[in-house]
Design a protein that fits this description.
- The structure holds two protein chains of two kinds.
- Chain A contains 14 helices and two strands, in the order αααββααααααααααα.
- By secondary structure, chain A is mainly alpha-helical.
- Chain A has a domain at about 105-335: MetI-like fold.
- In chain A, strands 1-2 form a two-stranded antiparallel ribbon.
- In chain A, strand 1 (about 85) and strand 2 (about 95) form a beta hairpin.
- The radius of gyration of chain A is 25 Å and the shape is globular.
- In chain A, about 45% of the residues are buried.
- Chain B is mostly helical.
- Chain B has a domain at about 80-255: MetI-like (MetI-like fold, Orthogonal Bundle), CATH 1.10.3720.10.
- Chain B is about 70% helix and about 0% strand.
- Chain B has helices spanning about 5-35, 40, 55-65, 65-100, 105-115, 125-130, 135-145, 145-155, 170-175, 180-190, 195-200, 205-220, 220-235, 240-245, 255, 270-290, 290-300.
Chain lengths: ~325, ~300
Amino acid sequence: MQATDANSLGGTRSASTATPFVVEGASKPAVGKRKRRAATSTTTQKRAVFGSNWLGFAFAIPQLLLIFTFFYWPASQALYWAFTLQSPWGGGNTWVGFDNIKAVVTDPVYWDSVIRSLVFAGLSTGLSMGIALVMALLVDRELAGNKIYRTVLVWPYAIAAPALGLAFRFMLAPEAGLLAFANHIWPGIWDPTLNGNQALGAIIFAFAWKYVGYNFIFMLAALQAIPRSLLEAAAMDGARPVRRMFDIQIPLLTPTLFFLLVLNITDSFQDSFGIVDIMTGGGPARATNLMVYKIYFDGFKGLDYSGGAAQSIILMLLVIGLTFIQFRYIERRVHYT
Amino acid sequence: MIERTPVFNIVSQVLLFLGLVLSLLPFVIVVIAATHNLRDVNTVPMSLIPGQDFFKNLTDAWTRANFGVKLMNSLIFAVGVAVGKVVISAITAYSIVYFGYRGRMLIFWLVFITLMLPLEVRIVPTYAVAANVLSPFQGILDITGITWLVQQVSGVQISLNFGLLDSYAGLILPLIATATGTFLYRQFFLTLPDELVEAAKMDGAGPLRFFWDMILPLSRTNIAALFTIMFVWAWNEYLWPLLVTTDPLKRVAVVGLLDVVPGQDSVPQWNVAMAGTLIVMLPPLIIVAFTQRLFVRGLVATEK
């Protein structure tokens, strides 16, 4: 995949800039893979270990107890609830098979929430990764003031989602803040408390703002791992900085970009809760009722444990699917960094 | 820089500067809004010249949300989670790497799988466990028939019940189990030379002594990096503390923000709301600003 990417890119542009890493991309994986296999098989076990097996196992017991109590048991419980009808305050459970799941997937409100979550995930990820990529490529040029950018761009990631939600709610409020002046010129043009699309746009923007710094860290680290000699060789062949970005740096960055893509999408399912809860409360008219928020709302506010559990199961499958994709491609990522 | 590109350099600087402004703008707006009085903060457009009411707004937000107690709770919560994660993941990784018992790879995978399902996704059943933390063990006793057996023999009905709601344990314990931390330590331990163990064994050191005298000093940087990132993560956690604590005196600062969110019915007190936002977001920001290197290192290492 990497090699063909490079080929097709190089083919349409100057062949000389493409040559060095086509060779690298094409020849390295086979050798590298074999080497790495051999290496991992010897290093996952220490040559010398301690003999006291019971003590060794005892070291792992606290973690095992925790993951059993707070992970495996609840996860299996969710499975059980998804297939039974459960009253929230105890009482009997009746086995209903796929009825709960069927009820969820035939509910148009649920599909509306899924589509809005996907739009949210796609747009916020695209926005934050796009901005982060431009920033990382430019910071990697090591111009003056480089250090300031490196430091400051990370800060937004340290802010709690509800806190930044409240800050953005103020800035984007229709009656005060930054965007409100638009209403002075064209009355009623901006009101996220009434217009669902504007509300969705507001939470997308707030989430993207937080994750620019996060993506930036990873992209910059990957860019700095690219050997300078590659860029210098391309410059000798007459490739200008922008051409080098498109023909060398971004293709070599694709594994990192892919990894970040998966990570951002998974995070957008979880980390959005605080932003949604403070900024919009799922409204107006369910326009920002994302999947995790809906689970919380149905399960805790509506006391519909079975429906909440069924939704949890579907979301779990989605997250597991995404994680699998990530692991499937993780080899590629490791190879270039 | 390889060649001279004056025009492109200017373009780059302009773009970078725009990015900087975009990153800093929300911080600046929050601080400025927190200095205004009620009338000024609701004027459109809001004046960017700071007002006089900064400390008044801070004290207003502080008393309204009772931030004194809540910041303390946040501190206990975040330190508890971070220390718990650092300790638990270090000893688990030590167990997996430095001992030869069977089933240790199974343990590694059991821990690793938890990565796939973050708390938010399994929130409803995890809450049920927190309401009665012994319910999983009760479940095991019920399924295996021990409950029935004991009742037949002694006439005693086993019912285990221990709630963690509204307690520090309930806040902290469910968040401690960590796959990323375990993975980080495992990778680090594997890079340590085998000769270390051999030498330690030759000198007569047992596993406990080796852990204390060799492994801990060697992993100091990793411990600091993991602690920083987990502290910030726990401080910013919202959904779990929101559910587990209902007693206002047990709530953490991030949840305390709910007390300063402006209501719908009166003139919104954005100045107080922004002062509260500032109080909540400052501690992790200070930590990240001062331990930037550790934070970035922890971030890149744990996500690999």
